[in-house]
Amino acid sequence: MTYDDTQAATRTPRPNILKGLVFLGAVAIVAVLLAVFVLGQRSQEGPFVPTAAPDPLSVDVVEVSLSQTFSLEERFTGIVSPRRTSRLGPQTGGRITRLYADVGDQVKAGRLLASLDTRALEAQLAAAEASVTEADAAHKLALATVQRQQTLFEKGHVAQQRVDEAVAQADSAKARIDAAKAQAATVQVQIDLARIIAPYSGVIMARMADEGAIAGSGQPIFELVENGRLEARIGLPARVADTLNVGDEYTLVSDQGDVAAKLRAATGVIEAGQRTVTTVFDVNDPSSVAAGAVIRLNLMRDVEESGLWLPVSALAEGERGLWSVYIAREADDDLRAVRSVVEIVHSEGDRAYVRGGIRNGDLVILDGLQRITPGQPVKAVRVSSTGGAQQAASLELQP
After folding, report:
1. What distance in Å separates the CA atoms of residue 245 and residue 233, rounded to the nearest whole number?
2. pTM of the prediction?
């Protein structure tokens, strides 16, 4: 065997193109047969092809009527407070000798609440009263001297100057009496101010000191709150405050119920921080509400805005803060769901006042919007506005 024969015997045969095509054809035939077998096993009847339109979706609708205005209830909040609140303390400092009231005590006007040590003041008062007595005696002597000098003058024994001097001494003595009495009165006032008296009837809310403590000048010892007269301060917008009349009675609302109150004053000045006008109401019956309670004034206002009330279940949230509703409108002798964009003007509980693409007489779909797509055939079931299927439907017919 030659060298060329040996190389030919050991060379690997190359695949034939015809054989490759035959192999691919066989694989394709097997795949087709397998697919036919699987489809045949899944359904002996063949694929389902719809031949009829689906039944219209039954929806609750209400025929709407647009309104040009709607009533808006505005609520304004304030606080009930006592008409008067005082922090009581001595005008002059001193040691507290006795307290006659405690926290929670109901006190009447004029009741003694506390007293300070006044022994030094009483000594000063005694000295002042002694000065008054001394000045009074000197005045009596001066008057007697005037009388004697006047008698001598009439007999010609003394000159007029001696009489005038005696009269001047008598006037000076009278002035010393007045000064001594004024000094005694000043000390007496200091003694009186060393006692704390209730300026009006109320309840003791706080006690800041005890017996034996040194109270400084003006330092409060008690906090007294008037409980027989309550007032409510409420901030209102200027346009609302202008509609109220001083002297008229209004019904306020608290957690304890309705509270009758009379408008006493309105400042008429817009506060810079709150941008409101402060109004003050006198509570007619203080027992109807507690001091410190939150109180509300509810007022109705008509807003001129074309639209209608709808239950929130009839609204679908859209893009860019807009909302939409579905309306059942005729199209090709059928009712179909049409989507219309609306804007919420005011919401209140489970209803909202909206404006937008709604006309008088439209049939608005009330709920089940998640099942609806634009253009879908629907079957309208009208909901009565007087009770029945949906309470929310009656709301939109009562703007």
Report:
1. 15
2. 0.57
